[in-house]
Amino acid sequence: MEKIIEILLGDIYIQSFILGLTLAAFFYKLSGRTKLNEPPLVYYRFPIIGHTWSFLTDCEKLICESREKYGETFSLYVFGQIMTVVGKETTHEVLRKDQDFSFREGFINQVPTHLIFKHVTIPEKNAKIVRDYVAGKLKHLISRLQKNILKAMDLYIGECVGKFLSLQHSGFSCNI
Fold first, then answer.
1. Which of 19, 31, 39, 76 could join 51 in a cystine, given CB atoms 3.0 to 4.6 angstroms apart?
2. Contacts of 10 (CB under 8 A, 6+ apart)
3. Is 75:67 a contact under the CB 8 Å cutoff?
4. Closest CA to 163 of 147, 176, 150
5. Which controlled-vocabulary keywords does the entry list (predicted)?
6. Could you tell me the pLDDT band of residue 24, with boundaries at 50, 70 and 90?
C-alpha cells in the first residue's frame, strides 16, 4: 500500500491528473446551479471563497450592487453555501407559501435536534396545538389576564387615579 502511494505522489502526471479531476468536479458542481426557476447567481472572482469576504467586510454595498445588477431576487455564494436574497416585493410570497419555502425544514437540516435529543417533539404538532386550542380561547384568557393584572395593581400599587395627580407633579406618571 505504501508503495502505491509513493508511486502516485512521485509521478507529476498522476498528480496533475488528480488535481485536474478535483477542479473539474468542483467547477461542475458550481456550474450546475442555475436551473429554470432559480434566481441568478451573482458573479464572483474567487471560486472557493465566493462572496464571503465582501459579505463580511461590506455587506450593504454587496447587496446594493447585486440588487442594481441582477434585480430584487438573486443568490450569493457565502461560507460555501448558496444564499438567496429576496426583495421586498416577493418577501410576502415567500412567507405565505409555507409548503414551498419551509423554514422548519431548513432549520431541521441546519440544526438536527431530532438526532441529538430523542424526546424533542415535531414543531408542526406544537403549532397545530397552539392554533387549535390556545387561539380559540384567547379572548377568554386575555380577559382573565386583564382582571388579574388590575387586581394586582390595586393590591400592590393602590388606587391609581388618586395618585395620578400627586405623581404627575413629582415627575412620575401612572398612565393606565
1. 76
2. none
3. no
4. 176
5. Heme, Iron, Membrane, Metal-binding, Transmembrane, Transmembrane helix
6. confident
Pair 173, 164: CB distance under 8 Å:
yes
Q: Is 54 exposed, middle or buried (0-12, 13-18, 19+ CB in 10 A)?
A: buried
Q: Cα(76)–Cα(133) distance, rounded to whole angstroms?
A: 41
**Strand, coil or helix: 73:** coil
Residues 84 and 73: beta-carbon distance below 8 Å? yes
Cell representation of residue 151: 387586581
User: Residue 145, SS3?
Assistant: helix
Residue 89 lies in a domain: yes
Question: Residue 148 CA to chain centroid, in angstroms?
Answer: 38
The structural domain count of the chain equals 2
SS3 99: coil
pLDDT digit string, tens, across residues 152-170 = 888 887 765 555 444 444 4
Full residue range of the structural domain in which residue 14 is found = 1-32
Helix ranges restricted to H, 71-156: 91-96, 103-110, 113-116, 123-129, 138-156
Place of cell 393590591: 155
What's the pTM?
Answer: 0.45
Q: Where are the alpha helices (DSSP H) in 32-112?
A: 52-57, 59-70, 91-96, 103-110
Residue 169 and residue 171: Cα distance in Å, rounded? 6
Determine the Cα–Cα distance for residues 10 and 23; give it in Å rounded to an integer: 20
